[in-house]
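Slide 14.
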Amino acid sequence: MSALRDAAMKSKAWPFEEARRILKRYEKKPPAKGHVLFETGYGPSGLPHIGTFGEVARTTMIRRAFQLISDIPTRLVCFSDDLDGMRKVPENVPNREMLLANVQKPLTSVPDPFGEYESFGHHNNAMLRRFLDTFGFEYEFISATDFYRSGQFDAVLLRAAERYDDIMKVMLASLREERQQTYSCFLPIHPETGRVLYVPMKEVNAKDGTITFDDEEGREWTLPVTGGNVKLQWKPDFGARWAALDVDFEMYGKDHSTNTPIYDRICEILGGKKPEHFTYELFLDENGEKISKSKGNGLTIDEWLTYASTESLSYFMYQKPKTAKRLWWDVIPKAVDEYHQQLRAYAETDDAEKQVNNPVWHIHGGNPPKSDMVVPFSMLLNLASVAGASDAKGLWGFIKRYAPEASPETNPQLDQAAGFAVRYFADFVAPKRVFRLPSDQERAAIEDLSARLEGWQGGLDDEALQSMVFAVGKDHGFENLREWFKALYEVLLGASEGPRFGGFIALYGIAETRALLGRALAGELV
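Slide 15: predicted structure.
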């Protein structure tokens, strides 16, 4: 452990860099609360998407890194701002008319359009927790509704009333003049309509802990700031939450970064110590646009897990968090294969520095499994393309010939991936395939390749087969051998990119490849 800890203290892996910043926070004395608190925030205004998951996954990676370099206990809190008013109706939910009738009510007071839970907020919270539980995260869930109404937030809310002018000074400096006229950090919840009101305050009474305001119809009300009668605007809520919970670390997307000084200052005004921050870049959809919960234009966790393992998604989240990344269907195969490449690299070294710098250390909390993927996912996709398989069983005959020692029982990761590959091919690859006939030069080369395979004596050796395919390309005058391989992919697989062709022949089989070449030459694939 000491070697790993020493390596972690020098590691340039981003989770360790963040963990060391948090540790420095307590270099003089340990936290009075007895632990370091990590927090992730969630706005349950729509169904959770992968970006929400990524925040918890990445925070967990930093937490694990911290646990290696420090003996201070840790907690991870997932906080749902479900007392927030529903400002607009998401586009990807049923019963939208019912939701429209409940606009501006707290999400936990809006009926569930799916008819399954106590409210829309409860539904979305349940979806988030189910998704997080799928990955085995260790976290504590806090509902803002419960936090406000149970009195856990009362002390900070009373302090906010006492220091109202200081908070307003921070907030007003960040607002346009028009917005300044009506802004208040307190949002009363109307006693009759239950709506979250955006109205100016007539009085904030620090002594009594009350606010006085006129509702939308001009009627005057006085409410206590405690007990869930009032919530804070989202920017002050950030800082107040940090102060109330004594949060040590929270990450959030780049769209929040300009608000960081506001969050920090309000936390300090309310008697807290601002936490450490980490700002990540946003995920983009297929068109390079920001993923939105309300639009539903990003992949959901369930969608990713329909085609690949949980670990591959965690690997995707680990990669370059400060770089904007497309989060679309085509990133899945690459993530799967790179994850298994890293597993194999981890298993091949005893070097502590290399281990803690490997993404799989962070994905698996320092105890990654061994990879049993003797066939890459990309190759399984190509096998599914030519094998006509409807499930994993349809690929195993080919796999066992290529790797006789492999089986669904001894290679469960491979068996799972084979099933995913068949499904992914059917849904995303097959509809986009465009086959073409070979040119005269390509036809001659393909005929030669078939002839050489007919007399092949080299067994199913990937490298030997790859060298032979190279030689065919050279002998037929392909100055750039990439064009030769591209021709094979387009003629045989209906795609401009494909597998290492020697490995493909070894997996699919000599006779089967020759039959495929024959069908292509006869024009049967077009």
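Speaker note: The chain has a mean pLDDT of 94.
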